[in-house]
User: Which sequence fits this backbone?
């Protein structure tokens, strides 16, 4: 029990003193995750909007596939990207394996279906409401998609934050493609797993507290955005 108490004290000491190693790990985690979510939004929002507005044969099959991809097993994604980026893979010449860029790619693959599927649902509901108005204005497909994206911006931010929460919690894929290399690809989740296996609980607990805080901030932001969107809809 004394060891646990000491680990908690040391964890708060690391946080309070802004330990350089702790800050470095958190900084890399934020860099990788925010980059991946940004790329996922750039891809996922237009994709979701197009699926919501467009009508073509096999559309429902694409929608079902997109929804299914929301539950992609992270280790499988990591394995597929590893095979593509390894020396024997088609993109091995880029030498991206075991770099932060490979981790960004893995997280982007995992987050994009989530963002796209949530965006599709939001835009589809909004399109059903505005369809007649947009048709009467003779809006083009691009104008329709852009108008709906702008009008649904608060709900889309909610989708982005949902993807952010998913990315922050990711372990399996980033370990496979990043390698958990000290001062190179070591992020919060992989460090927690490593330090716990070594019995070094102070750093693991410190990072765990930071992850919990980030989770609270993300969920709090989701609640605020939801309330804001509801007020805007009634205005």
Assistant:
């Amino acid at each position: 029990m004394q060891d646990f108490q000491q680990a908690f004290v040391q964890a708060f000491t690391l946080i309070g003193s802004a330990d350089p190693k702790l800050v470095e790990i958190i900084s890399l985690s934020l860099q990788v995750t925010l980059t991946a979510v940004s790329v996922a939004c750039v891809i996922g929002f237009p994709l979701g909007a197009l699926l919501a507005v467009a009508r073509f044969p096999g559309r429902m099959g694409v929608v079902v596939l997109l929804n299914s991809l929301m539950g992609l097993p992270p280790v499988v994604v990591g394995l597929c990207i590893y095979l593509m980026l390894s020396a024997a893979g088609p993109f091995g010449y880029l030498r991206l394996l075991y770099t932060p860029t490979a981790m960004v790619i893995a997280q982007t693959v995992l987050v994009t279906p989530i963002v796209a599927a949530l965006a599709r649902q939001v835009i589809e509901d909004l399109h059903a409401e505005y369809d007649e108005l947009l048709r009467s204005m003779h809006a083009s497909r691009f104008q329709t998609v852009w108008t709906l994206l702008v009008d649904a911006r608060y709900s889309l931010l909610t989708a982005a934050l949902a993807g952010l929460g998913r990315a922050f919690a990711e372990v399996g894929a980033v370990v496979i493609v990043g390698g958990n290399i000290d001062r190179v690809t070591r992020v919060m989740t992989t460090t927690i797993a490593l330090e716990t296996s070594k019995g070094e609980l102070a750093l693991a607990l410190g990072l765990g507290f930071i992850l919990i805080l980030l989770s609270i901030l993300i969920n709090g932001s989701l609640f605020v955005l939801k309330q804001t969107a509801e007020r805007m809809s009634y205005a």
About this structure: The chain is about 80% helix and 0% strand. The CA atoms of residues 135 and 232 lie 24 Å apart. The two ends are 56 Å apart (CA to CA). The first helix runs from residue 2 to 16.
